[in-house]
Amino acid sequence: MNQFFALSVAVPLLTAAALLAFRPLLRDRRNARGLVAVAASASVAVMLGFLLARTGAGSVYWFAGFRPAHGVVIGIDFEGDQLSVGLACLGAVLMTAAIVFAWRYFEQVSSYFHVLMLTFLAGMTGFCLAGDVFDLFVWFELMGVSAYALTAYRPEERGPIQGALNFAITNSVGAYLSLTGIGLIYGRTGALNMAQIARYVASHSAVHHGPDGLVVIGFLLLITGLLVKGAIVPFHFWLADAHAVAPTPVCVLFSGVMVELGLYGIARVYWSVFGAALGHQSAVSHVFLALGVLTAITGALYCFRERHVKRLLAFSTISHAGMFLAGFALLTPLGLAGAAMAVAGHAFVKGALFIGAGIVLHRLRSVNETWLHGRGKRLRVTGIAFTLAALGLADLPPFGTFLGKGWLTDSASSVAGGPWLAAVFCACTVLTGAAVLRFAGGVFYGLGDPPGEDPRMAAEANEETGETESGRQRTPLTMLVPMCALVALGLAAGLAALTPRVAAAFESAATRFEDQSAYMSLVLNGAGTARPAALYPQAPPDVTAAAVITALCSVAGAVLLALVALYWRRLPVLRRGYEPGAGLTGAIRSFQSGVINDYITWLVAGVAALGGVLALIVR
Amino acid sequence: MQVFPFLVVAWIVVVGLYGMVTSRDLIHQIICLIVVQSSTYVLLLGVGYVTGGVAPYLFDISPHPKAVDPVVQALALTDVVVEAAVTALLLSFAVQAYKRFGTLDPHDLAEFKG
Predict the structure, then answer these.
(1) Which of B82, B90, B97 sits opposite A138 (nearest CB)?
(2) pTM of the entire predicted model
(3) How far is it, in rounded angstroms, from Cα A298 to Cα A432?
(4) Which of A286, A616, B18, B26 has its CA 20 to 30 A from that of A432?
């Protein structure tokens, strides 16, 4: 069974190589290529699903059987616990949906697309399972390079090149800083395997009554690349540029899994390696909480003022990434379980929303909300699925997002300032949900006042013409089915987690993830867990009445705000000469300038600020 | 362990980042990115260096007490491969950008934001 670990990265890589090798044979056989890619991706999903069901408290796969000798790691391992395997499985499911969606999406879907998608999948799976920090970097880069190339999949157009350059350069700088961190950590500890490093830093900080300064710098540099990938303010600028121009099937993966993988990486290196050395201090928790809250608010504000639907969804992803980071930053099992649940729920609904945006682009040739107003009435099924997914994004029970956010706020209520945190999350959920609902209401149901004629609009409406096949009279089933399936999965994830068994599994998986000694003994001694699974809390997290009321309030708030945004011209207070957010536009644009140099400046400033804060608080 | 190689590393990183921030030409910016990456080679090799150590051929010779660390050399090699892939891709983007926009200035490219 453990062979599935190796197969889950080998299958997509070998399939990608085979697709390239037999390219002349497959040139005119788009269905054959699609089938091969879907089969490879689905088989990875099945293998990982099987591992997820069987893995229990965690299992380790040593490549070529190089097991640790006398507690010293000499090989390379994949470590699978329920969170890491679950996240990899989520990625494979979304990948399958995205490849099916792409089937009839492009005018010419070349083999490169499927090859790149499969290497992207291998990168994501390997990143989730990697057991040592250097392999983490290598999988990170494989994922990155595939993603850059996919963003610029239509190099004949202007936008994609610019977006891909911003994406690639910003992420590469982050990755190289990560590698510098890895080098420093290796230099100090002589180890690359996470469990081995953990043992060194834990014993060192026990002897010296404090963490090693060099290791703290290494930690900071290591998470820099992950913060960039996780789109945490001020490292987030690339995300909207890349999402706006990447082909929509690729956006499904970017928003649904790739960004979350960055955050998963932070949680992984924190809990498996550095947590004990940094002392699990509340100060460290506060730093990450502050970053998360800042990101959530920034993303939500940008999201609400956006009219380009792919950018709008991208900013909502940034906002949610902030909430996920905050869930991890609470440093409690319930917070992490909530973040994991929210990631799963978010991935499904966000994937469905992006597919919906892709269908709109495919049928109506535009992604501009103003131009599209009322033109989507014919897309009935798409409209219903999009609206459902939008309500799911606004935490409608029983979508997975609702439970995740509920556990998260329950966990937050135990820390000082918890109610504030809950209020901020609720506000951000309302803002992002309202923005998406506003799009749904205006485009699919023609709600609200028709917009005035704007000369720039026609130009903007024609921006995206080359991406997809010329307008068809029907939406192909290969687009509708994945969209509806993702909405259904989002609902199913939430419903499943309402049962005590699954809820308890989430919490015990999070508890196991945060148990560093269990991780170390599993990897170094192969001894399973130090504590039997029965010792982990079995009482499932309750669904409190407060969580349900909060979620319903945020849904109601989102609907209300969306209606206000649609009908604001009729409000007597706002009628005359008021344009929502007009005064802010200039200032906001100057931040999100699209110039790589500015993004690098923000990145360097962010690292310096974070380093300064860590130097002050970690002693 | 000597401090000097690590000062060199810090210097290369700072110079590369400065170049990236101030650059007005995409090719120049990508070269600066390579400079940033080069710092990691120096770092890795500096970490594994042993004064007076021999090359780590650990086969068919009497065990030498001092050999430089072979692991970092493997890491540096992998690093080179990664860099080659990323740089080739970025330069191809730059070529495409010049074909489409007729300019390589990042500030001008930002005008064409999609």
Answers:
(1) B82
(2) 0.92
(3) 11
(4) A286
Tens digits of per-residue pLDDT, A428-442? 999 999 999 999 999
**Which of B33, B75, B113 is facing A169, going by the closest CB pair?**
B33
Cα–Cα distance measured from residue A308 to residue A412, given in angstroms and rounded to the nearest whole number:
34
- Closest-CA distance of chain B to residue A192, Å: 10
SS (H, E, C) A453-494: CCHHHHHHHCCCCCCCCCCCCCCCHHHHHHHHHHHHHHHHHH
The residue-averaged pLDDT of A273-287 equals: 80
Distances (CA, A) of A294 to A33, A230, A290: 44, 14, 6
* Contact (CB<8Å) A165/B47: no
For B21-38, what is the mean pLDDT?
A: 94
Task: Please indicate whether, in this complex, the C-beta atoms of A593 and B110 are within 8 angstroms of each other.
Answer: yes
> In sequence order, what are the beta bridge partners of A77?
A62
**Distance between CA atoms of A53 and B28, rounded to whole angstroms?**
51
Task: Indicate the residue of B21, B26, B39 with minimum beta-carbon distance to A600.
Answer: B21
Quote the minimal CA–CA distance from B80 to chain A in Å.
11
Q: How far apart are CA A316 and CA A27, in angstroms?
A: 38
* C-beta atoms of A168 and B106 within 8 A: no
Give the span between the Cα atoms of A280 and A618, in whole angstroms: 10
Angle (CA) A158 A161 A164, round 5°: 145
For chain A, report the end-to-end CA distance as a whole number of angstroms.
44
Backbone φ, ψ for residue A499 (5° rounding): -75, 140
Residue B63, pLDDT > 70, answer: no
Beta-carbon separation of A162 and B97 below 8 A: yes
- DSSP letters, B44-78, are HHHHH--TTPBP---SSSPPPS-B--HHHHHHHHH
Judged by DSSP in three states, A597 sits in: helix
Q: How far apart are CA B19 and CA A164, in angstroms?
A: 20
Q: How many CB pairs under 8 A join A and B?
A: 129
- H or E element at residue A78: strand A77-80
What are the backbone dihedrals phi and psi of residue A80, each rounded to the nearest 5 degrees, phi first?
-115, 115
Q: How close does chain B come to A603, measured CA to CA in Å?
A: 10
A77-80/A59-62 β-pairing: antiparallel
Whole-number average pLDDT of chain A: 86
Identify residue A12 by its one-letter amino acid code.
Answer: P
Alpha-carbon dihedral of residues A64, A69, A71, A75, nearest 10 degrees?
-30
Could you give the ipTM of this predicted complex?
0.94
Query: Phi and psi for A466 in degrees, rounded to 5?
Result: -80, -10
Residues of B in contact with A162 (CB under 8 A): 97, 109-110, 112-114
Alpha carbon dihedral A552, A442, B111, A112, in 10-degree steps, equals 80
The answer to whether the CB atoms of A183 and B40 lie below 8 A apart is yes
